[in-house]
């Protein structure tokens, strides 16, 4: 059993900051890519930021220069530091991870339950 638990969402004013955390727990051998998606009402879920176990990262164009994704591989945790937040960043943010249970074979995708981020004055 593997679980991803997110925290750090909330209400923030435009220009403010939040830091999201996502901790993976359970029977885990290794985690490959780990990152964040978001979904606003009436819109498709989109990739926000992702990080590999080696430290490389990629971002959606809309958040480049404002968001930073990082990982603590010892704690199996991924973070999303969100600065200069805009109203259009309002969405439910979901953690996603590609996790291997065994030393070999393909990883399987797992999702967190989502955490609400609301940017409003």
Structural descriptors:
7-stranded mixed beta sheet; mainly beta; 4-stranded antiparallel beta sheet; single chain; 121 residues
Overview of the molecule:
The protein has 121 residues and is an all-beta fold. Helix content is 0%, strand content 56%. The chain has no helices and 11 strands. Strands 2, 4, 5, 6, 9, 10 and 11 form a 7-stranded mixed β-sheet that branches. Strand 4 and strand 5 (46-51) form a beta hairpin. The chain is elongated and about 50 Å long. It starts with a strand and ends with a strand.
What order do the helices and strands come in, and which of them pair?
Blueprint: E1 2-7, E2 10-12, E3 18-26, E4 30-39, E5 46-51, E6 57-59, E7 67-72, E8 77-82, E9 91-100, E10 108-111, E11 115-119
Parallel strand pairs: 2-11
Antiparallel strand pairs: 1-3, 3-8, 4-5, 4-9, 5-6, 7-8, 9-10, 9-11
Please sum up the structure shown.
The protein is an all-beta fold. The protein is built from no helices and eleven strands. The strands form two sheets. Strands 2, 4, 5, 6, 9, 10 and 11 form a seven-stranded mixed beta sheet that branches. A four-stranded antiparallel beta sheet has the order 1-3-8-7, with no helix packed on it.
